[in-house]
């Protein structure tokens, strides 16, 4: 952890070099190695989440009630209490999903080292000590991001709310790799991500915009292809982190032997 903190401190003082084409090409190569298994993992995870949440809501309120509420889901109609409940619910959901994102990043790491990985790799972080920090960090980010966005939308300032939410999400996109690879606790990882991303804001923004476009290509046809293009974004996250911060391979091995 001290090593990563030292790197972040050096980045804060001196910045770092980054090359758009190098990172993009490495992300493509990494993506090719994980696309199939990671895509299947997204399908399985999506099915589990859908069954768990929709099944639970339907059992309590019924499908017709859910359909009616979804059609009326407009922040302008929310009361203060509803905004709070809505924000907390979505934020907790994001926190539950965070270990899965970490698992896809672990796939990307294994692929970069030509090490074996499987469908189970995507779910590894649900049973490690990292779960707590992954959950806390992602939930906190979502509360601030979604809470701010929803509050502004409820006030009729939809564009500003969406913009600020997107900026917060972008500035914190390295939080998960800083937790699982950098071994940082939740709040240090959030601060570290802000520091790193802000130093090359527009280059990193360009890389993520291109990545999102690549992901959206999966919507062509039967749309199921998006499950297999989504891992490209995770590959991009991994390569960006690895190029800027790097991964202590000895520490990574020791962590999984604990």
What tags apply to this protein structure?
258 residues, mainly alpha, 12 helices, 77% helix, membrane, Beta-carotene 15,15'-monooxygenase, transmembrane, transmembrane helix
Kindly describe this structure.
The protein is mainly alpha-helical. The protein has one domain. Helices cover 77% and strands 0% of the residues. The protein contains twelve helices and no strands. It has helices spanning 2-14, 20-61, 63-71, 80-112, 130-154, 158-171, 175-180, 186-199, 201-216, 226-229, 231-244, 249-257. Helix 1 (2-14) runs parallel beside helix 8, helix 2 (20-61) packs across helix 3 and helix 5 packs antiparallel against helix 6 (158-171). The radius of gyration is 19 Å and the shape is globular. The mean pLDDT is 86.
Largest sheet: none
**SS strand fraction:** under 5%
The number of helices is 12
Low-confidence stretches: none
How would you sum up the global shape?
A: globular
Q: Which class do the helix and strand fractions yield?
A: mainly alpha
Strand element count: 0
Task: Kindly report how far apart the N and C termini lie.
Answer: 16 Å
Helix content: over 70%
What number is the mean pLDDT? 86
SSE pattern: HHHHHHHHHHHH
The value of Rg in angstroms is 19 Å
Number of domains: 1
Protein name: Beta-carotene 15,15'-monooxygenase
Transmembrane segments: 34-63, 83-109, 130-148, 160-181, 201-228
Keywords: Membrane, Transmembrane, Transmembrane helix
Organism: Flavobacterium myungsuense
């Amino acid at each position: 952890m001290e090593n990563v903190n030292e790197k972040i401190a050096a980045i804060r003082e001196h910045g770092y070099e980054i090359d758009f084409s190098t990172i993009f090409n490495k992300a493509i190569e990494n993506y090719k190695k994980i696309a199939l298994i990671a895509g299947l993992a997204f399908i399985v995870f999506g099915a589990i989440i859908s069954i768990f949440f929709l099944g639970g809501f339907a059992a309590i309120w019924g499908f017709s009630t859910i359909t009616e509420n979804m059609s009326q889901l407009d922040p302008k109609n929310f009361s203060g209490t509803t905004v709070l409940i809505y924000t907390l619910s979505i934020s907790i959901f994001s926190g539950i999903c965070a270990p899965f994102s970490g698992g896809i990043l672990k796939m990307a790491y294994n692929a970069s080292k030509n090490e074996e990985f499987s469908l189970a790799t995507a779910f590894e972080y649900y049973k490690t000590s990292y779960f707590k920090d992954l959950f806390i960090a992602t939930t906190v980010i979502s509360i601030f991001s979604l809470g701010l966005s929803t509050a502004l939308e409820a006030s009729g300032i939809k564009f500003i709310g969406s913009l600020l939410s997107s900026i917060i999400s972008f500035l914190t996109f390295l939080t998960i790799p800083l937790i699982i690879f950098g071994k940082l606790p939740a709040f240090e990882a959030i601060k570290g991500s802000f520091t790193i991303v802000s130093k090359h804001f527009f280059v990193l923004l360009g890389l993520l915009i291109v990545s999102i476009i690549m992901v959206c290509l999966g919507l062509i046809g039967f749309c199921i292809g998006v499950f297999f293009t989504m891992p490209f974004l995770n590959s991009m996250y991994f390569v960006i982190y690895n190029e800027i911060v790097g991964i202590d391979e000895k520490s990574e091995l020791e962590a999984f032997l604990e």
